[in-house]
Amino acid sequence: MPTEQTRWVDLATVVPILDAAQRLEVVALKSFCEQYIASIAQPSNCLTLATQAMMFKMEPLVEAMVQTTQGCLPEVAQSPGFLTCSFPLLAKVISINRPHHLEEQLFRATWAWLLAVPSHQDHLNDV
Asked: Residues in domain BACK (predicted)?
């Protein structure tokens, strides 16, 4: 249930608000957004957050969200953000999960990503 402090921020708005807070140098709002992201980030939503962070060129947040996927590829691959994530983000997720999962699991996740969006097939030779 949203609190008074969080009723205006959610998964879809927190990264753009964080970007604005950074640009406008609103330290308290920036800190709040960072804490909020830390409290909600999980394998099922981290790629949605990472995709937004990539749009705003927030590489540290992207890396933090990629770290959240470590060892959780099956759950991450079932998340809404997985099938629509960019190729660079997919590559990071597969790379960080390589030591934790069987090659078959990595292949299945990558194959699902390739088939999900027609433009992903442009990366067939890259994967």
From this structure: 46-126
Residue 115 lies in a domain: yes
Query: In this structure, is residue 72 part of a structural domain?
Result: yes
Q: Are 66 and 81 in contact (CB under 8 A)?
A: no
Give the pLDDT confidence score for residue 95 in this predicted structure.
96
pTM, full prediction: 0.85
Q: What is the pLDDT of residues 59-114, one digit of tens each?
A: 999 999 999 999 999 999 999 999 999 999 999 999 999 999 999 999 999 999 99
Using CB atoms within 10 A of its CB, is residue 11 exposed (0-12), middle (13-18) or buried (19+)? middle
Q: Which domain holds residue 68?
A: 41-123
In this predicted structure, what is the pLDDT of residue 1? 39
Q: Quick check: is 31 in a domain?
A: no
Q: What is the pLDDT of residues 23-52, one digit of tens each?
A: 999 999 999 999 999 999 999 999 999 999
Q: Would 34 be classed as within a structural domain?
A: no
Cβ atoms of residues 39 and 45 within 8 Å? no
The number of distinct structural domains making up the chain is: 1
